[in-house]
Design a protein that fits this description.
The structure is a single chain. With about 190 residues, this protein is mainly α. Helices cover about 75% and strands about 0% of the residues. The protein starts with a helix and ends in a 6-residue tail after the last helix. The mean pLDDT is about 85.
Amino acid sequence: RQAYSYMYDNFGSGIIITTNFFLTFAVTYAALEAAGCDPTPEDDDNPCSNRVEGIRPTNVMNYVGTAGGLSCALSMPVVGAIIDHSPRPWETASAAAWILGVVAIVQGMIADGDTWPVVAFLQVLSIYAYVVHGTVRDAWQPEMIAKLPHEDLQDQERNAINAGSSMAFFAGILGSIFLVLIIAFGFGLGTL
């Protein structure tokens, strides 16, 4: 039962990664428009040199990724201590999962040309919550298999859980991409 929960969680993680993937393009597109650049230039050899909020619009997501990564790196000792020494690490995982879900919904609701800085900031929060949640989830795996009597069975179970979780993660990514494409083409919202 715990292994299925682990796999379902990875399925949800795949969906969250996909929303961040689509929002990355949306934020970059909106930042290019805000800077007065053509978001779909015919000539990629001469990129727009205008700036928005002091940075090039094509670098916005680089800053978002860096801020998210640094926030994770600076706080992981505290998160690790919570996981290892707190009697309730699952509350941390649950809070991070709720933050991920709420942030994804809010980003989808407000993602338009004028709100791209807010969406970019929420991306930093999403990166942080994703890493915290994944850290707690992955720390849970040894507990799931520790109940098995032999080390050979533990290795087999670990491999089965990892394989199933990877497939669930991939299914979440593919499923959400197909859902977005069906909705986009079904409502005539855009083309590839």
